[in-house]
Fold this sequence. Notes:
Layout: H1 3-12, H2 14-36, H3 50-76, H4 84-115, H5 120-152, H6 155-177, E1 180-186, E2 192-199
Antiparallel strand pairs: 1-2
Helix pairs in contact: 1-2, 2-3, 2-6, 3-4, 3-6, 4-5, 5-6
Amino acid sequence: MTFAKYQKLIARRPLLANMLQTGFLFGTGDFLAQRLFPDDGHHDKQRYDWERSLRAIVYGGIIFAPLGHNWYIFLSKINVGRSKVANTIARVGVDQLVFAPFIGIPMYYTVMTMFEMKPLASIKEKIRKNWWPTLRNNWLVWPAFQMVNFYLVPLQYRLLVVNLLSIGWNTYLSFVLNQKGHHIVVGDNEQLVLAEDASV
């Protein structure tokens, strides 16, 4: 698709355009995670997990994109005064202090773990183990980037710009989500036991 065609699509069907691009780029992030950080450490021997990538595409396109689309519309309406700089700072503050810690990060680990048909205990453990490290790394990357994005980029292109940087971020999220190690699983007797070397 040429950029001219993309501009027409984003003008006529902005939500559809955002769903298509976000699904594709979440899938790209998972592809890179599988290729760059294979579970067994052997790039040439690991079987590619197409179902895992499909889950990333579905999450990005159907779950995250509509939410992100409407979230950026909401943020664009935050005005604390006539200063563009002040409005940008306020929007980044809400994005990073509300969306990232309480919506975006918990939702990712919850939905992606549900897609794997894992029990509630696995979801809780995944969030408990990964919420703070992910949020901390989020704050190292996104606030400065979003300042530039909100200040310079027109509203209709902000999610696209975010998604381009998110190729790297989604690679990181997919890697963290699929790390192997100690975690909680539910046995046949419904008791919680510790398991090793199985993805949460």
